[in-house]
């Protein structure tokens, strides 16, 4: 784990697509920032 090594950890998930809206909701509930690759 990186906790304790770095002060500010910004967990993120970059994906092309998800098969269900539940996947994105679950990731956000876990504290992950969700981005789609086509946003970049």
Give a structural overview.
With 40 residues, this protein is an alpha+beta fold. The protein has one domain. Helices cover 22% and strands 20% of the residues. It contains one helix and two strands, in the order βαβ. A two-stranded parallel ribbon has the order 1-2. The protein is flat and about 35 Å long.
Q: Tags for this entry?
A:
alpha+beta, 40 residues, two-stranded parallel sheet
Summarize this entry quickly:
With 40 residues, this protein is α+β, with helices and mostly antiparallel strands.
End-to-end separation in angstroms reads 27 Å
What's the total number of strands? Answer: 2
Mean pLDDT: 88
**What is the ordering of alpha helices and beta strands?**
EHE
pLDDT < 50 stretches: none
Structural class assignment: alpha+beta
**For the CA atoms, what is the radius of gyration?**
12 Å
Domain unit count? 1
H/I helix tally: 1
Q: Order of strands in the sheet with the most strands?
A: 1-2
The largest sheet, given as strand count, sense and whether it forms a barrel, is: 2 strands, parallel
- Approximately what portion of the residues adopt beta-strand conformation? 15-25%
